[in-house]
Amino acid sequence: MFIRYFLPYVDIDTICAANKTIDCYFYTEGSWDRIGIIVHLVMIFPACVLVLLQFTPAVRRRYTKLHRLNGYVIILLSALSMGGVILTLPNAIGGTLDAQVSILALLIAFLLALGLALYNAWYLQIEQHRAWMLRAWFYAGSIVTMRIVVRLLASLVSDKGYVAPLPCARISSIIGPASMGIEYFSDCAPYFRGEDDAKAMVVLASLSGNGANITATYNVVFGSAIWLGLVLHAVGIEIYLRLTPSETERLRQISYARQLNAGMKSPGRMGLTADRLGDSPPWMPPEALVVHQEAQ
């Protein structure tokens, strides 16, 4: 169901024909934006499907090698996907600075969390690996929440005096014939007469207007929606991690046992743990666990 729902979005031309949005102005044949968005979608969709296996307890516990291999595939797909995002960044949602910075912040948070999860996996610090992998995909999941927030914010700012600057070339690509452009956007008349190709104008944010007004509305709210979605998910995952201390402790004990068996010098604290990097007292394994390891 997931694949059947999302694969149509890879067909950029069909999507653009059905939805006259500002993004499609940049998705011309052979453009970096078009290449970037296709790479992003083709890579991130299978990564999202495969990551479900990573969070399935039965797979993690019974098929360790599959879990490890699948993790490397997901990280590779995610990195390639973020490379596609970087190609689209200059013109993302019209190329406004707030949109660029918000997308870049989300990209950095996602890749950094993935990198820290991988680092802790290498050193068998399983509870930290779990925490950072959960953070990574909670951050990525903010894109879904963002879509809801965008619609809410758009309805709030519509016809409230908010405006967005749009180049006349983009306005023309959205609303169609030049005669319609001159009628609704008289400031673009020099562009439609062929006198000034770089002409731009300020467009009212309004969901009740034409396509250019709707585009201006989403341009106004997009950056704020990304930030709000990211904050909600970042806070949400920290709350979840604080509510599952027993699972964290269980995994740390497993980390201790595996690191000890691997001959690591500081079993139980080889990864990015608070007692290694911060001022918390060193973690000590339960006495029963120590006795069990010595008996082996």
TrEMBL record:
Coiled coil: none annotated. The chain crosses the membrane at residues 35-57, 69-89, 101-124, 136-157, 220-241. It comes from the Eukaryota. InterPro entries: DUF2306_membrane. It holds the Pfam family DUF2306. Keywords: Membrane, Transmembrane, Transmembrane helix. This is DUF2306 domain-containing protein. It comes from Remersonia thermophila.
